[in-house]
Each structure stands twice: as structure tokens, then as C-alpha cells.
């Protein structure tokens, strides 16, 4: 009798552990990395280091917010890194007209890429991974045509945006936090957000219910493109240079990792913005930890791949129960 009771209890305990890992594992990972660095990384506990980490995580978070919307609709956006590259090229070309004109053009560029992505998916029926892969290649190529090589950006407003702060908190952190709140509100409190989740949960059922599936999908990818463009704008401000060759390289990997680790399932129908924020912080801390301990950048990519596999495994196992 005792053996039978034990066997019945073990699956329940395993299911509970998987549920906890899916919902809260990302926060545990952040805490574990913080404690490790506090104990074993020199000069980690300093205001300058925390400021640097916050500035570097902002673009990852902004891109991940758009990726969360795409994944929540049962899609993905592989073009986000190339949109960042395109945005830095457009910024360099239009900076002479002032920072606001340049920002407007950058946003239009990101929205245009998102519109093409959304149209291919919504109207032609191309799979999201294929459509956005095509734009990943095409947008990066266009960025290099517009700006074949690195170019310095000399503008006081851009320099202030990239390195300035208010009350000790960098401007880019305020922007990233504001966008996270806005996207979270959109998902949880608006009709568009509810429609997005319904489409991600079951697109055929959403069509039968009369939801504007095509319009929602296009809007999702336009928003993802705009957010990636803003991230490219802020990254350029931080670097004080436009480099379409390197900017945004493998950013799609970081964004997908942040979203999936944060608890948003690849199967769609759910978006966890709080988890995405924690996931972006986790990715930045992981990268910083490996760099500070003199490991090559390639180890960061390997670590992110392992994290993605583990997160997908936890979500898959949980989904079976």
C-alpha cells in the first residue's frame, strides 16, 4: 500500500516542480546569478556596474517585448536583429534633420518591416518562421546597402539619451520600463490583447468566432518591428556609432530566450510580460557573468541554447499533464 501511495505521489510532485519552474524558475535563476556574482565576481557590487548592466539589458528587453507578442500569437519574429541594423542605418542617414525626424524615420522603417512580415503571414499564409527569416536576411542586406560600414554619430541629444540619467537611473531604463508597462497593459486590459491570446490559443476557433485575425496578426508584427527599431535607436545612442554589420546580431536568440524562459509558451495563447522582463535580466546577467570570468562570447550562445531547451522541455512536460 505504501509503495502504491508513493508512486501516485511522485508524478504529482514532479508536476508541481515543473509548474514552479515554468512560472517562477526565471526569478530563481536571476537570484542565483546575482548571488554567484556577489560572491565570486570582483567589483560586481558597484553602482557603476549595476548602471552598465541596466543600460545593456534595455535593448534586449524592448526587443523581447515585441517577440513576446509574436510568440503569444503562435508565431515568432526572426527579423528583429536585422530591424535593429536597419534602424541604425536610417538613423545615420537622417540624423542631420534632427533627432526627432531620425526617430520618426526609424520607427517607420521598423513598422514597414513588420507590415511585410504580417502581410506574408496573414494574407498569403506563409509560416511565421519562414516569413520573418526572409526579412531577417532582406532587412540586414538593406541596412548594409544604406550604410556599408561603421559611422560615428555625433549629436549631443543622442549622447545624452545614451548615457544620461535622471535620479541616478539611465534614460534608456525609463524607456524600457515604460514600454514594458504599456505592452503589459495592452495584453491584459485591451480588446486587442484578448484577441491576440485567443488567436494564439486556436487560430481556427478565433476565425469561427469572427475575430479580426488578419488585422491582429499584422498589428502584432508591426509592433514587434517598431519595438526592435526603438531598441536599435537606443543601442546606437549608447554606442555613439551606427554599425549595421554588428548591431542586433543574434538579438533574436536573446529575445526568444528571454520570452520562453519567462514562461510564455511557444505554442501561443499566453504572454507573460513580467517573466519576459526577468528573462531579459537573466540573459544579460548570464552574458556578463561569462565575460567577467574570461569566457569567450561563444559560451554565451551555448548557454542560451541550453536555457532555451530546458525551458521548452519544462513547458512541454507541463503541457502533457
TrEMBL record:
Pfam families reported for this sequence: BPD_transp_2
A Gene Ontology molecular function term of the record: transmembrane transporter activity
Source superkingdom: Bacteria
GO cellular component, as recorded: plasma membrane
InterPro entries documented for this protein: ABC_transp_permease (IPR001851)
Subcellular location: Cell membrane
Principal place of residence: membrane
Coiled coil region boundaries: none
Keyword Glycoprotein: no
Lipid bilayer topology: Multi-pass membrane protein
Segments crossing the lipid bilayer: 24-45, 57-73, 93-116, 128-148, 168-187, 216-235, 297-315
This protein's UniProt keywords: Cell membrane, Membrane, Transmembrane, Transmembrane helix
Protein known as: ABC transporter permease
Amino acid at each position: 500500500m505504501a509503495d502504491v501511495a508513493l508512486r501516485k505521489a511522485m508524478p504529482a510532485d514532479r508536476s508541481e516542480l515543473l509548474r514552479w519552474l515554468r512560472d517562477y524558475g526565471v526569478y530563481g535563476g536571476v537570484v542565483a546569478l546575482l548571488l554567484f556574482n556577489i560572491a565570486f565576481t570582483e567589483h560586481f557590487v558597484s553602482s557603476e556596474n549595476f548602471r552598465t548592466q541596466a543600460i545593456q539589458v534595455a535593448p534586449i528587453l524592448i526587443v523581447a517585448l515585441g517577440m513576446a507578442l509574436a510568440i503569444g500569437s503562435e508565431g515568432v519574429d526572426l527579423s528583429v536583429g536585422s530591424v535593429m541594423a536597419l534602424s541604425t542605418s536610417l538613423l545615420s542617414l537622417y540624423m542631420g534633420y534632427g533627432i526627432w525626424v531620425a526617430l520618426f524615420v526609424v520607427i517607420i522603417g521598423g513598422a514597414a518591416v513588420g507590415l511585410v512580415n504580417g502581410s506574408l503571414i496573414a494574407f498569403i499564409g506563409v509560416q511565421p518562421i519562414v516569413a520573418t527569416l526572409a526579412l531577417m536576411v532582406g532587412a540586414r542586406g538593406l541596412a548594409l546597402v544604406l550604410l556599408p560600414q561603421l559611422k560615428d554619430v555625433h549629436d549631443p541629444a543622442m549622447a545624452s539619451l545614451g548615457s544620461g540619467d535622471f535620479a541616478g537611473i539611465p534614460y534608456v531604463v525609463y524607456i524600457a520600463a515604460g514600454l514594458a508597462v504599456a505592452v503589459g497593459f495592452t495584453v491584459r486590459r485591451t480588446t486587442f490583447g484578448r484577441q491576440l491570446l485567443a488567436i494564439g490559443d486556436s487560430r481556427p476557433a478565433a476565425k469561427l468566432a469572427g475575430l479580426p485575425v488578419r488585422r491582429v496578426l499584422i498589428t502584432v508584427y508591426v509592433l514587434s518591428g517598431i519595438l526592435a527599431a526603438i531598441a536599435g535607436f537606443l543601442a546606437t545612442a549608447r554606442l555613439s556609432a551606427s554599425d549595421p554589420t554588428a548591431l542586433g546580431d543574434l538579438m533574436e536568440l536573446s529575445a526568444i530566450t528571454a520570452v520562453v524562459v519567462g514562461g510564455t509558451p511557444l505554442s501561443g495563447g499566453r504572454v507573460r510580460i513580467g517573466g519576459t522582463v526577468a528573462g531579459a535580466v537573466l540573459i544579460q546577467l548570464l552574458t556578463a557573468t561569462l565575460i567577467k570570468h574570461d569566457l569567450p562570447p561563444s559560451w554565451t550562445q551555448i548557454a542560451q541554447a541550453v536555457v532555451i531547451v530546458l525551458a521548452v522541455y519544462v513547458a512541454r512536460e507541463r503541457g502533457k499533464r
